[in-house]
Design brief:
The chain has 11 helices and no strands. By secondary structure, the chain is an all-alpha fold. Helix 2 packs across helix 3, helix 7 packs antiparallel against helix 11 and helix 8 crosses helix 9. The longest helix has 22 residues.
Length: about 230
């Protein structure tokens, strides 16, 4: 039982008035001081904005400090280096290894119906969401300019996507590698043009209109796989 939950005994009851009379302040816990958490969040938000617009190489620690309106020394206080800040900034918004977890939960009920649509909607939902899009854009833009810096995140996305396709596709055959690559390429190319590079008219296309065009192109790959 914690100290705050102890039953008030004779000693405790006597100690409280004495402490109050002496003007003692209650001791603080071992957590962060007030303001530290909000400052850290402020830095992460600023870093994510810059990583998403400038990529990893184009973003500097000083630039992040200016964007966050904090002393540059504070960034080094919270984060070891730019790589650590990049990792934490992305992870603060999204866990890339769980991109398709919600889809996996639906598999037992949905079976093999509308697999292409469910995969596309699940993956693109994170790109449509304004809270998670900056993290994904930061990763993809960094891959374009500095693949080494984003390798861990890229590997997480690829692993999550491969696991998803492995669950939704029938038993592995000689066509499976090509099938996986084609579906991955279509979705990766789409997000690059629509969300990262913002190429028009794709960038402004209504999401449901986009699904109307995209889903048949994804479903055809499932149709070409041999039945279970």
């Amino acid at each position: 039982m914690s100290k705050g939950a102890e039953s008030p005994g004779p000693n405790n009851a006597a100690a409280r008035p004495v402490a109050a009379a002496r003007g003692r302040r209650p001791s603080r816990g071992s957590g962060r001081r007030p303001g530290q958490s909000s400052t850290r969040t402020q830095i992460l938000t600023a870093a994510l904005e810059l990583f998403a617009t400038k990529g990893y190489s184009g973003t500097t620690m000083r630039g992040i400090a200016q964007q966050a309106q904090v002393d540059p020394a504070l960034i080094h206080h919270f984060f070891n280096n730019k790589d650590g800040l990049f990792q934490d900034a992305v992870s603060s918004r999204i866990d890339l290894s769980t991109l398709f977890d919600s889809l996996m939960d639906e598999e037992a009920e949905a079976g093999l119906n509308n697999r292409g649509e469910r995969i596309a909607r699940t993956f693109l939902s994170f790109w449509e969401d304004e809270s998670t899009r900056p993290a994904l854009v930061a990763v993809y833009r960094t891959i374009l300019l500095d693949e080494a810096a984003a390798k861990a995140f890229r590997d997480q996305i690829e692993a999550a996507f491969a696991s998803c396709l492995g669950r939704t596709a029938p038993e592995e055959t000689e066509r499976t590698p090509a099938f996986t690559s084609l579906v991955s390429a279509q979705l990766a190319g789409l997000v690059m043009l629509r969300y990262v590079l913002a190429v028009e008219p794709l960038a402004s296309l209504d999401f449901e209109d986009l699904m109307e065009w995209l889903v048949p192109a994804i479903e055809v790959h499932f149709d070409r796989l041999p039945p279970e």
